[in-house]
Amino acid sequence: MNAEGMLEMARHQAWADAAHWKTLRENAALLEDAEIRTRLNHMWKALKMLTALARGETPDAAGMKEIDSMEELEASMGKAHADLAATLASADLDRMIALPRGPKGPFEAPAGVLLLQALTHSQHHRGENASRMRQLGATPPMTDFVIWYALGRP
């Protein structure tokens, strides 16, 4: 795993999510949509859980209840992005992490794999949210990695 490349992906992810939040705030119907709200909570929980696991911590299940307030959810996702970036900057990406369950039972994976999962998982769900925005009549922002790069990596 290349930490600098993953940090670039994390910077892109924070930017792309912020662009989605801007679109969400501009359209009340999007903020009220149960499908988007559920997916955003899922994205936040997965990001928080995978980052904690990569640090060798046990995720706090009690601290990962659904967040009803969209303002609080946006702030929590921002904190999760900052935690991911800090973890990428300091973690031993090759450190093996024991995981209690997988497709064939318990297994181990390098911390870098868990952090890469945190990045790719959110990309997938951001695409689902973009599709839902279109279904609800809104135009989602262009958040492809190459667009972020062309804009000077804001």
Describe the structure.
Helix 1 (3-25) runs parallel beside helix 5. The two termini are 24 Å apart. The mean pLDDT is 94. By secondary structure, the protein is mainly alpha-helical. A two-stranded antiparallel ribbon has the order 1-2. It has helices spanning 3-25, 28-32, 34-54, 70-90, 111-135, 145-150; strands at 96-99, 107-110. The protein is globular.
Mind telling me the C-alpha Rg?
16 Å
**H/E order of the elements?**
HHHHEEHH
The residue fraction in helices comes out at 55-70%
The proportion of strand residues reads 5-15%
Overall geometry: globular
Q: How many strands, what sense, and barrel or not for the largest sheet?
A: 2 strands, antiparallel
User: What's the helix count?
Assistant: 6
Low-pLDDT segments, ≥5 res: none
Question: N-to-C terminal Cα separation, in Å?
Answer: 24 Å
Strand order in the largest sheet: 1-2
Kindly name the structural category. mainly alpha
Number of strands: 2
Mean pLDDT: 94
Subunit organisation of the chains? single chain
